[in-house]
Amino acid sequence: MTQTTESPARDARRRTFPAARHRPRIHRAWIVAVVTFVTIIGGAAFNSLPGLLIDPLNTEFGWSRGEIGLAVSIDMALYGLTAPFAAALMERFGIRRVVVVALGAVAAGALASVWMTAAWQLMIYWGLLVGLGTGSMAMAFSATVTNRWFVARRGLVTGILTAAGASGQLVFLPLCAWIVDRHGWRPASVTVALAALAVVPFVWLLMRDHPADVGLAPYGGEYVEKPAPARGAASRTVRVLLDAARTGPFWLLAGTFAICGASTNGLIRTHFVPSAHDHHMPITAAASLLAVIGIFDVIGTIFSGWLTDRFDARRLLAVYYALRGISLLFLPMLLHPTVEPPMVFFIVFYGLDWVATVPPTLALCREQYGEDSAIVFGWVLASHQVGAALVAFLGGVARDYFGSYDVVWYAAGALCAMAALMALVIQRVREPSDSVLR
């Protein structure tokens, strides 16, 4: 009788790849991606509120649009500045712990705002607590999950996870608008708090920090051992920033993404509803239009991820920003008391372009900065939110001063044209022959 013996190398491979003999039909990476998607929806629920509450808070407390815009700008700035540190904290303490604490901060800020009576409290609850919480679940969260769990389909997954924010807007904007219209702004704030808390069990039970935690290789890649927790998260985050800041592509990416934030979160998300209301459009109708942006945002972002896997990311960004700028120049002529077909066309067009910029921007960060790309993208995202914060504040000030938002729309259109030119001059790292369909 012949006895078959396995080589030491094969035996070592079996010990190294414990899950290779029982591959699940659905790779665990897709389950983690779904949990990430749902988490971002829950955390993004708060982003539906600011544009809806500017008029109610102005009416109830007499706070100017500039004061309310300042609170929103603090939230957006902290959202961005927290992101790079959150990426490093996830490497140190794990994704689950950081995200659960972040969801708790969002819920606490939204719930505490129910009892506020002064503008400084709005800045603490909306600005500080919610800003820190949502920043810890920002796009750097998506980048960390994508980099750890996926090798293949990274562009597509980035697009899907980026679309989660728009999906949250799609779900919560009409709901919160209806609640504000029928029951006031406080029940809407409570609804947001409950949405954040409802996601916590899914994160704790289903999220895993690394494929090695369940004995798997990343989707489309080779098995790698889980790295030891990275200490000195804050110092590493600053060090990565200092290294990246010595390179030209970082400043171009940060500049274009700042304009992206200014023309989306800072402008449309914060000021579109009150601007439409200035033209006597009902708040619920304006909020429904923003929700429609969310529908097409999902489509546009996923399609942009697909395109990013195939075409030059710089050229994609240039096209996205140029088209966005042109559409903003026409917006003041489209605002009427009723929703006309040209406005519907603008909403569909802007929705497709809303955060289509994220997959190519993240791809360029990955190409330029390799293993540090998640943290670098966190800093680029910080510039996105700083741009959004400035326009959220200055847009309110401009409305108080000029009596309309027209000058803001025109200025944002010009900035988008500048971003298109900046994207084209970003230098590539790899040779053109390394890419597909360039």
Automatic annotation (TrEMBL):
Source superkingdom: Bacteria
Keywords: Membrane, Transmembrane, Transmembrane helix
Transmembrane annotation, as ranges: 29-48, 68-89, 98-118, 124-144, 156-180, 186-207, 249-268, 280-306, 318-337, 343-364, 376-395, 407-426
Membrane topology: Multi-pass membrane protein
InterPro entries (alphabetical): MFS, MFS_dom, MFS_trans_sf, Proton-linked_MCT
Species for this entry: Streptomyces laculatispora
Predominant place of localization: membrane
Record's keyword annotation contains Cytoplasm: no
UniProt-annotated location(s): Cell membrane
Domain Major facilitator superfamily (MFS) profile: 31-431
Transmembrane helix found in the keyword field: yes
Name of the featured protein: MFS transporter
